[in-house]
Amino acid sequence: MTATTQEPRTALPGVDLERVTFEQAKGWRCALCDAILTADRSLGTFTASSGLLTDPTELWACARPCR
Questions:
Q1: pLDDT tens, position by position, 22-55
Q2: Which of 5, 21, 26, 67 has a Cα at 20 to 30 A from 57?
Q3: What is the CA radius of gyration of the chain?
Q4: pLDDT tens for residues 3-28?
Q5: How far apart are CA 49 and CA 62, in angstroms?
Q6: Are 12 and 30 in contact (CB under 8 A)?
Q7: Cβ pair 30, 41 in contact under 8 A
Q8: Rounded distance, CA 19 to CA 25, Å?
Q9: Cβ distance 29 to 35 under 8 Å?
Q10: In Å, what is the CA distance from 34 to each residue of 2, 4, 5, 7, 13?
Q11: How many CB atoms lie within 10 A of CB 52?
């Protein structure tokens, strides 16, 4: 069986991936609501044409859905 890798997504509804902050890119703050993360969930891996996400980056959000 061959493992497949998923390509980074280029869109996240309600989030301008080109304006993600350093703290959001590092997983310290929610990519959706900007709250400090104490419990989190992965949103997946994303990339953008400019900004901090030009390399594929996994984004995180509040464990309990914040929106």
A1: 999 999 999 999 999 999 999 999 999 999 999 9
A2: 67
A3: 12
A4: 556 889 899 998 999 999 999 999 99
A5: 25
A6: no
A7: no
A8: 10
A9: yes
A10: 37, 32, 28, 25, 15
A11: 16
